[in-house]
Amino acid sequence: MYTNQAHQNDRLFPHVDLDAWKQTLAAHGRTPEQLAEHQGDANDSTAISRRNMARCDQQIPLMFRQALAEHPDVVTWARTLVQQAGGRVAPRVEHGPSLLLLGPTGVGKTHQAYGALRWLAPTGVVAPWTAVSAVDLYAALRPRKNNDPEAEFWKLAMAELLFIDDVGAERKPTEFTEEVNFRLVNYRYAHRLPTIFTSNVMPQQLADRVGDRVASRLAGMCTQVVMRGDDRRRKAA
Ligand SMILES: Nc1ncnc2c1ncn2[C@@H]1O[C@H](COP(=O)(O)OP(=O)(O)OP(=O)(O)O)[C@@H](O)[C@H]1O
Ligand SMILES: [Mg+2]
To answer: Which residues surround ligand 2, an ion (CB under 5 A)?
Structure first.
């Protein structure tokens, strides 16, 4: 619907299915029409928003592509990142608090995390993000042929905005997974790099899962949100 033919294939003004963004835009008091009419500078707020939104549409898994940040503390966290944005050419997420979503299986932690990334998209703040589940992260960092685990590690450690899903989900923590967790959390803590973590535990169990030193840093760097309720997957089934 709200396409702009002239800009459709342009990297700077990518096509976005603005209809699918109606609710998120409404949360910012904006409408799809306002974004569709944009013809301006590549670095203005609307162009940045459209690029952020296109990234979300390409990179968010299908199941969470319409996710909305509904939890008030999640929205407050995202708003803080926007308020603290720096950058010379355009406002950019550089440093800020992290977010830790805790709670049992199926309450909607991953949904809220993607909802937060989608909430950030139309704010006009440059917010490139990388998402990975902890188990995929460990797999990617295991030494194997033609793999440079250190390069992989630093790509993630230094990402501007990082979402690590399901920290501590591995059945048996090993020295390797503990070291990866510690190095990553420690680097992001020390450099105040905003990170979204989810973990399938309640706060009292976190240190048992990830160890005291990681849990302590998470407590220091994160807005902690505990989600409660039923498993939405079972309910839906
Ligand atoms: N607020 C919501 N509105 C609609 N659907 C939701 C919402 N929150 C979660 N869901 C749906 O419920 C299911 C479970 O959500 P999600 O995957 O986010 O749970 P989770 O807490 O991350 O679970 P796990 O700990 O097993 O990873 C998903 O199918 C998701 O799309
Ligand atoms: Mg999840």
So the answer is: 110
